[in-house]
Automatic annotation (TrEMBL):
Gene source species: Bradyrhizobium forestalis
Catalysis: reaction(s): (6R)-5,10-methylene-5,6,7,8-tetrahydrofolate + NADP(+) = (6R)-5,10-methenyltetrahydrofolate + NADPH; (6R)-5,10-methenyltetrahydrofolate + H2O = (6R)-10-formyltetrahydrofolate + H(+)
Family named by the database record: Belongs to the tetrahydrofolate dehydrogenase/cyclohydrolase family.
Encoding gene (name): folD
Domain (Tetrahydrofolate dehydrogenase/cyclohydrolase catalytic): residue spans on this chain: 6-121
The organism's place on the tree of life at top rank: Bacteria
SUPFAM superfamilies linked to this entry: Aminoacid dehydrogenase-like, N-terminal domain, NAD(P)-binding Rossmann-fold domains
The protein's name in its UniProt record: Bifunctional protein FolD
Length: 294
């Protein structure tokens, strides 16, 4: 038996199309154009690729995209001044400051300065706290994408055993909260967990978000488990180039899992699509409109 491959490309394209339909509707019915501002500090090549893709996809969905590029040596004060300006700008409904920030800048202070109503990354303590409390919140995009991918296989996650490996603010912690909201039973594992293979073996749903290439082995998995691989690790090849691998040993897992996301072409595709969803939701909420249909 070989696992079903969960096609993030197809699912993300479908989501983007549904966002574009809703954007067209709010434009037509309410003269509202959702706008996303992305702030990139410095010239980290990976971040530049992500930011360009956010810009292209935001415009393709019919939304306004505002890019702000700041030099690596920008002062904390100048960065906070830009965030304050975006908070006040009525054309901007979503603000994303690309992470990681260069050394010397205080990430926590920058996130705290973003208006929680425009915090489409879901990282502001107001949103993180609301999510943890089970209240309506803007939630981080990658975990939202993980839930959508899981639901492409399972209509309901109620009562399923899920394990989240990794406890970052951007992925692991919010993913745990979203799974609880779906009535899954959640184990949170991390680098200090004892007997990780034993914990993973009990799980119907496995989320690997540790950033360690191919750490989760095929023989750790319960046969038939659904595996969502959040890892994007660049490892060197013999010819000097690099290849992308996830946090799961894909070939091994393919023989045991019931369904699995590939890397690339799985979770990565979903993050930007969910950012568009969050921007649309933020724009509707700020304008006092009902929640959009996506
Ligand atoms: N860097 C990598 N992923 C993300 C993300 O989802 N949001 C932000 N702000 N930075 C990132």
């Amino acid at each position: 038996m070989t696992a079903e491959i969960i096609d993030g490309k197809v699912i993300a394209a479908d989501l983007r199309a549904r966002v574009a339909d809703e954007v067209a509707r709010v434009k037509r019915e309410h003269n509202l154009v959702p706008g996303l501002a992305v702030v990139l500090v410095g010239n980290d090549p990976a971040s530049e690729v992500y930011v360009r893709s956010k810009h292209t996809q935001t415009q393709a969905a019919g939304m306004a995209s505002f890019e702000h590029k700041l030099p690596t040596d920008v002062s904390q004060q100048d960065l906070l001044t830009l965030v304050a300006k975006l908070n006040r700008d009525p054309a901007v409904h979503g603000i994303l400051v690309q992470l990681p920030l260069p050394k010397g800048l205080n990430t926590e202070a920058v996130i705290n300065a973003i208006d929680p109503a425009k915090d489409v990354d879901g990282l502001h303590p107001n949103n993180a706290g609301r999510l943890a409390g089970g209240f309506e919140a803007l939630s981080p995009c990658t975990p939202l994408g993980c839930i959508i991918l899981t639901k492409s296989v399972h209509a309901s996650l109620e009562g399923m055993n899920a394990i989240v490996i990794g406890r970052s603010n951007l992925v692991g912690r919010p993913l745990v909260q979203l799974l609880l909201n779906e009535n899954a039973t959640v184990t949170i594992a991390h680098s200090r967990s004892r007997d990780l293979p034993g914990l993973v073996r009990k799980a119907d749903l496995v989320y690997a978000a540790v950033g360690r290439p191919e750490m989760v082995r095929g023989d750790w998995l319960k046969p038939g488990a659904t595996v969502i691989d959040v890892g994007i690790n660049r490892i060197p090849k013999e010819d000097g180039k690099t290849r992308l691998v996830g946090d799961v040993a894909y070939q091994e897992a393919l023989a045991v899992a019931g369904a699995i996301t590939p890397v690339p072409g799985g979770v990565g595709q979903m993050t930007v699509a969910c950012l568009l969803v969050n921007t649309l939701r933020a724009a509707c909420a700020i304008a006092g409109l009902p929640k959009p249909a996506v």
